[in-house]
Each structure stands twice: as structure tokens, then as C-alpha cells.
Design brief:
Order of helices and strands: HEEEEEEEEEEEEEHHEEEEEEEEEEE
Radius of gyration: 27 Å
Number of helices: 3
CATH architecture of the largest domain: Beta Barrel
Distance between the termini: 55 Å
């Protein structure tokens, strides 16, 4: 094993040093895959369930002869699955996976653009997990249990792509791919009863899916051309690389950036007066779309106003069981904040990250109400062990909050940047108080409350366009 690792490291070293034109690529994609089902019992055939994949990918490309490239890939992939057949309802669950792989890409020039064919292989890393979902009414009840068993899941991927060179010589591309797994990602057992008949069945998701995505590739072609120009002026290669890097990293203190972010919004539901610990505070996913401006001021400080639409859910976590949630409302949010570029080094135009903070005001207009209930069963006896009910009403709710965040901008071109951002916000008001009651088998009913007041975390990705970048 030791000798194999030595040989592999030597081969990679030779590949990295043998060819110019190595590349780095980031991309995002969405995909869909379908389950297979098997029905057992009476009069309730199972429909196939869809699985939605969203992923963020990065790869390092090692240039080989004759338009051939070897890619080393890493990705984060979220799979959203739908616990119930359509006739019951489509609540959703999700699991986060990571991918590691390698493959070959062959580029075919088409005028100034490129068509590419790719073959990749690798493994998905899946945490062993189990989640269950239950519904209950006067007419019927159902329960599903999802099991994710394989911690390492091999896959193979076929890819077709089309790439367009930009003015900075980097590449923007679209790609269509098929990913096939060698083992199922999950299995699901399903039970249903209308108190007259009983049926059950099972699902299996192979992981075979089709994906559509976009990607951006740094080729360093423009950078290499600038270096060659400096070499003509008797500047040595090391100094020429340093001059070009400093020039490309420059951002004016008066620059203005317009940023559009899409992210996952994790809002918190807090159980009040919860002495028996049957339910726990829960934080669960929803979505956030944010538009903000960064207006340069001085000394690396910027003003940062913004607006967003944030989805708020009521999340419930039962002790020893899974997470469940239902949508409450969408909030329109206005941010008033400041940003500072941290650990800036003027001589190199480098900086570590952006730190931002401020206050926000979230508002839901109009009025609305809702309610919900749930039941948990003993898996072996089908006896009820826990029931709960809740209801809520809102009328022109205002949610003030304070927030702190950190972000990093990655330059795609002179004007376009890719942004990764994290934000934590603290609710400053009492928020919405939701009456909540539950009963555990052979115990007295418990009445309590759930609070949703704006406490949340948000991780987002976005693009920024930079104006006025002259010194």
C-alpha cells in the first residue's frame, strides 16, 4: 500500500509539472431521480416519488496532450425527498452528501467555443441515518421510515458540456450529465390504514439521476499573456507573476457592488416552558433570496443596505425522533448595515474576508392563520404514543432583528465576483407565539407555546457586479 501511494504521488507530480494550462472549475447543478416501489396489501397502489438534487461542485483540471484533461472533483450534494405518495401530501425531507471523484474530459473545438465529453467516477459519502414521518386523521393514518445505510456509495457519471470563452479568457459553460450509483441511496417502508383496510409497501432509490448545471473555469490564459508581455520588458517570471496578481486583485475603496444571493435559511422554533423535554427547540431549513448593495466609504468600510424575501417555517423536533415542519409565511426584510474588509494588505491587494453587521426589519403584510396536528405510533403495535395540536394567527407582524455575518468574494472577472456568505441573526422582539398542546400515552395533556421571533442562520451563494473600480 505504501509503495502504491508513492507511485501515485510521483505520477501526479509529473502531471502537474508537465503541462501548462491547468484549470480550476466551480459549478452548480440541479437534478432529478425517481424511486422504484413495491406494493403489499390492499387498494393503495404506490406512485413513484421524485428526488431533487442540488449540488455545488469544484474540480482541478490537469491538462494532458491532445485536448484531453484529467479532473479531480469534490462536491456537496443535497437530496430532497418526498415522504408520502401524492394522495396524502408532499411534505419534504433532505439529506446532505459529499462527493469525491476523478475523471477524463475531451474537448472538441467548435469555431471559438468548445464541446466536451466527460467520464467521471467516484464515491458519495452518506451518513447512516433514519427518519420517520407520520400523519393521522379521523379517517386514516400513515407512517414512513427512511433508512440511509451505505456510508460509501460508488457512482459513475457521463457528461456533455458546451463552453464559451469570455473576454478574460476564462470559460463559462453549461452541462448535462447522468449519474448512476452502484448501490441504493435509501430504502423506505410505508404503512397506511383507513381503519377498514391496511396496506404497506417499500421504496428504493437507486441514486440514478439526470442533472443540468452551469460552471465557470479559470484557465489563467489572460494571466499568462500578461506575464509574457512583462517578460519582454526584462522582468523575471517570478516578479512578473507578482505584478499581475497584485493588479488583478485590486478593488477601489469607492467601488460599488450589487449582489444577488440565494441561500438556505435555517430559522428556529423555541418551545416555551418545556419541563418534560418531550419536544426540543428545533432549527430547520427554508429559503432566502437577497439583493443588496455594498457602497464603498473609506478605510475598507462600506455601507450595505439590502432587501430579501425569507421563508419562515414552524419546526418541531420530538425527543428521540425526526424533524418535521410546516410553512408559516414569507417575510419581506430590509437590512441596514455596514461591512469591513478584514486583514487587508495594501501592497499585495489581498484581504482575508468581509465582516458585516447591522439591523433588519422583517414584515409580513395582511393576515392569516393556520393549524396542524400530528400523531406518533409504536412501530410494532401501531398504538398511538403521542399526539399534538397547534394553531396560529398573524396580522401585520413586524420582526426586528440584529445580525452579524462573514463573507468572501472570489473574482471571476474584472467586474463579476462569486460570493460565499454566512449570517446569524438575533430576534429582538417577542415574535409570534403559537399555542401548542400534546398528550403522551397515559399522561395528562400538556399545554405550552412555541415562539418564532427571527432567530436564524443563513448560508448563501451569489454573484456580484462591481462598478467604479478605478483608483
Amino acid at each position: 500500500m505504501k509503495y502504491c501511494l508513492i507511485i501515485i504521488s510521483l505520477v501526479l507530480s509529473q502531471l502537474l509539472n508537465a503541462q501548462k494550462g491547468n484549470t480550476f472549475t466551480v459549478g452548480m447543478s440541479s437534478g432529478i431521480g425517481m424511486t422504484k416501489n413495491k406494493t403489499i396489501g390492499e387498494n393503495r397502489p404506490l406512485d413513484n416519488l421524485s428526488n431533487i438534487h442540488t449540488s455545488l461542485n469544484a474540480s482541478y483540471g490537469i491538462q494532458l496532450p491532445k485536448n484531453l484533461r484529467c479532473d479531480i472533483n469534490f462536491g456537496l450534494e443535497n437530496i430532497s425527498y418526498f415522504p408520502y405518495p401524492a394522495y396524502i401530501g408532499r411534505s419534504s425531507g433532505s439529506i446532505l452528501l459529499s462527493n469525491l471523484g476523478a475523471g477524463l474530459h475531451y474537448k472538441i473545438p467548435v469555431k471559438k467555443n468548445f464541446f466536451s465529453l466527460g467520464l467521471n467516477g467516484g464515491v458519495r459519502f452518506i451518513r447512516n441515518a433514519e427518519s420517520s414521518y407520520s400523519t393521522y386523521s379521523d379517517q386514516s393514518y400513515s407512517k414512513t421510515i427512511y433508512t440511509f445505510e451505505k456510508s460509501i456509495n460508488p457512482f459513475i457519471s457521463l457528461q456533455l458540456g458546451y463552453e464559451f470563452p469570455l473576454k478574460n479568457k476564462n470559460l463559462l459553460g453549461i452541462d448535462l450529465s447522468f449519474k448512476g450509483s452502484f448501490h441504493p441511496i435509501y430504502s423506505m417502508d410505508y404503512n397506511f390504514s383507513d381503519f377498514v383496510s391496511f396496506s404497506n409497501g417499500s421504496y428504493s432509490y437507486s441514486g440514478n439521476s439526470v442533472h443540468l448545471g452551469i460552471h465557470y473555469t479559470w484557465t489563467k490564459n489572460k494571466k499568462n499573456a500578461e506575464i509574457e508581455t512583462l517578460l519582454l520588458d526584462s522582468v523575471n517570471r517570478k516578479e512578473a507573476k507578482k505584478i499581475v496578481a497584485i493588479k488583478n486583485r485590486f478593488q477601489s475603496s469607492k467601488a460599488v457592488l450589487i449582489q444577488l444571493h440565494q441561500g438556505g435559511f435555517m430559522n428556529q422554533s423555541k418551545i416555551l416552558n418545556n419541563t418534560d423535554n418531550v419536544f426540543k427547540n428545533a432549527t430547520g431549513p427554508s429559503s432566502s433570496t437577497r439583493l443588496n448593495a455594498t457602497i464603498g466609504w473609506k478605510n475598507n468600510w462600506s455601507f450595505q443596505p439590502g432587501v430579501s424575501i425569507d421563508s419562515y417555517w414552524l419546526w418541531l423536533r420530538k425527543n428521540g425522533s425526526g424533524l418535521s415542519g410546516s410553512s408559516l409565511f414569507n417575510l419581506f426584510t430590509v437590512d441596514l448595515g455596514m461591512q469591513r474588509r478584514m486583514l487587508s494588505f495594501p501592497k499585495t491587494n489581498r484581504y482575508l474576508c468581509n465582516v458585516n453587521g447591522g439591523i433588519s426589519f422583517s414584515y409580513v403584510s395582511g393576515s392569516g392563520s393556520g393549524s396542524g396536528s400530528g400523531t406518533s405510533f409504536d412501530y410494532y403495535t401501531n398504538q398511538v404514543i403521542l399526539t399534538y395540536n397547534y394553531s396560529y394567527h398573524y396580522n401585520n407582524k413586524l420582526f426586528p432583528a440584529a445580525y452579524l455575518g462573514i463573507s468572501k468574494d472570489l473574482r471571476l472577472s474584472n467586474h463579476i465576483l462569486f460570493t460565499i456568505a454566512y449570517r446569524h441573526q438575533f430576534g429582538l422582539s417577542r415574535g409570534m407565539i403559537i399555542p401548542f398542546s400534546y398528550t403522551v400515552t397515559n399522561q395528562a395533556p400538556v399545554s405550552t407555546q412555541i415562539r418564532v421571533n427571527g432567530n436564524a442562520n443563513c448560508i448563501s451563494f451569489g454573484l456580484a457586479y462591481r462598478f467604479n473600480n478605478k483608483g
